[in-house]
């Protein structure tokens, strides 16, 4: 987060973290802890979504083996 703060370009944010930092600079209620929890929540939600997707993929591939050989 420090690296993002040091290299941020307000006219051209690179990613979601840049937008959060810019918003935190304008809003005193948004601080480092809030940004960290937001990023952690996104990471956990993304990993859970990926895990469930892979689980369903494996289930469907074992239930329908004929689709594995299609090009």
Key attributes of the depicted protein:
71 residues, mainly alpha, 3 helices
Please report which band the strand proportion falls in: under 5%, 5-15%, 15-25%, 25-35%, 35-45% or over 45%. Answer: under 5%
Straight-line N-to-C gap: 44 Å
Number of helices: 3
Low-confidence parts lasting 5 or more residues at pLDDT below 50?
none
The strand count comes to 0
Molecular structure report:
This protein has 71 residues and is an all-alpha fold. The protein has one domain (2-63). 69% of the residues lie in helices and 0% in strands. The protein has 3 helices and no strands.
Would you summarize the structure shown here?
The protein has 71 residues and is an all-alpha fold.
List the helices and strands and how they pair.
Blueprint: H1 2-7, H2 16-26, H3 32-63
């Amino acid at each position: 987060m420090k690296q993002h703060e040091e290299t941020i370009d307000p006219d051209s944010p690179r990613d979601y973290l840049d937008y959060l930092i810019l918003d935190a600079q304008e809003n005193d209620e948004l601080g480092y802890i809030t940004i960290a929890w937001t990023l952690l929540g996104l990471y956990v939600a993304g990993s859970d979504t990926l895990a469930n997707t892979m689980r369903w993929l494996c289930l469907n591939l074992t239930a329908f083996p004929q689709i594995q050989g299609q090009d």
